[in-house]
Amino acid sequence: MSRADEPVVSLDGVKVHFEKEQGLIDSLFGEPDTVGAVDGVSLEIAENDVVALVGESGCGKTTLGKTAIGIQRPTEGSVRYRGQDVWEAKDGEGEIPFEEIRRSLQIIHQDPGSALNPNRTVMRTLTAPLKRRHSEMSPEDRRARVLRMLERVGMEPPEDYAHRYPHQLSGGEQQRIALVRALLMNPDLILADEAVSALDVSLRVEMMDLLLELQEQFDTSFLFISHNLSNARYLAEKSGGRVGIMYLGELVEIGPAEEVLQNPKHPYTKVLRWATADLEPEGEVEEPPVRTIDIPDPVSPPSGCRFHTRCPKVIPPEGTDISQALYNEIMDLRNAVEKRTLRPDEDAPRDAEIARLRDERFDEPLSEPHRERVDRALAAVVDGDWDAAAEALRADYESVCERRSPTLGDERHPTACHLRDEGRRAEPSAADD
Q: Residue 28 pLDDT more than 70?
C-alpha cells in the first residue's frame, strides 16, 4: 500500500494516562492516582474525511484529538500518519520526518485569541510559518499568498485586516485567522477543538460552512471536537462524515451522522440526544433516559461497560425473573451500599429500620425472592457490615454489563454495548420496562 492509499491518521488501541496531582502528604507517602483519559481507542481518519467527536466534559475527546495529531504521546497503542508511526518518527526512526508530520497535522483551538500573539499583526502572524516552511519565497510572494488566503475566508478587503492586531478583531475574525494559519501549512488533517463553541450562535453555522468549503478546496480532513451534538451533526451530515460518541475515555459508538442521531444504539448516545433540545424527537419522554446524573470517578472507572452505573437498560442476570424498572432500583441500591451513602438510624428497632430503608429505595412492594435478598443486604447495612451487604447484592444481581467490557466492532455503525452482542435482541422488549 502506498502512502497515498494509507489513512491519513490511524489510531490503534490508544491509551493516554495521566498521574493526578497530589497534596504534599500523599506525594510523600502514597502512590499517585492515575487517570485514564483515553483507554483503548482505535480510529481511522481517511483522506478528505470528517469525524466529529462528542461527549461530556472530561470524557477524553480533546486528549484523543491531541494524540491523533502528534501533540500528546500515548501511554500505550500506536498513532500512525500515512502508515508511519508518529512517535518513532519523533525519535528519529522511519521514512517520514517528524517535521513533515507536524506540518501535516494542525490544530485550531477553542479560544483563538489566546492562540494569537497580541503583539503581532495578522500579516506578521501569518507570514511567520511561511518563512519557516518556504524560505525560498520572497517577502512579496508571502504577502500575496496571505492576502489571497484572507480573501478566501471572507476577510475583505484583505489589506485592511492584514495590519490589525488580534484585539482589533471579533471572535469570529480571530477564528478565521487561526484557520488561515493552519491552512498555510497545506495540512492533511486539522484538529478543530471546540472551534465554534466560543462564537455567537449566529456565527457558528457560518464558521462550520467555511470549514466545509475550505475542506473541498484544500482536500483537508477534519477531526472536530465538540460537546454540542447539534454542531457535530451539522458538520458531519453536510460533509458525509461520521459522529463518534465518547464516554469516560472510550469510543462507544461511531457511524454516519444520520444513523447515529436518528437510530442511536448506545444508551449514552440517547442521553446526549435527549439533552439536545433541537434533536429531541416528537414524543420523546420528559425524563432523561439515565438512572443517575452522577459521573463515575475516572481514577477508578466502573468495571465492564463504564456506563452501566448510569444505564437504564443494564442487563439483568440471565434467568432472573425481574422487570427492568425493579432491576434498575436494585442496581441503584447496590451503588448506594458500595458508596455507603445510606443513612441507617442506629437507635431505631432493627426490623423497622430495614423496612424503612426498603421503602425509601423502592416504588413498589417487592415480590420474592427479591424482598428476601434485599432485606438480607439491608440487615447487614443496619448491622454495620457494609462489605457483606455489597457482596450479597453482587452475588444475586451482578450483570454482564459489569463483568465484561463490550467491544466496538468494525461495522458501518459499530456500538460498544452488550445490548448489541451477537445473539442478544437488539432492544429490550416492552415487557422489560
A: no
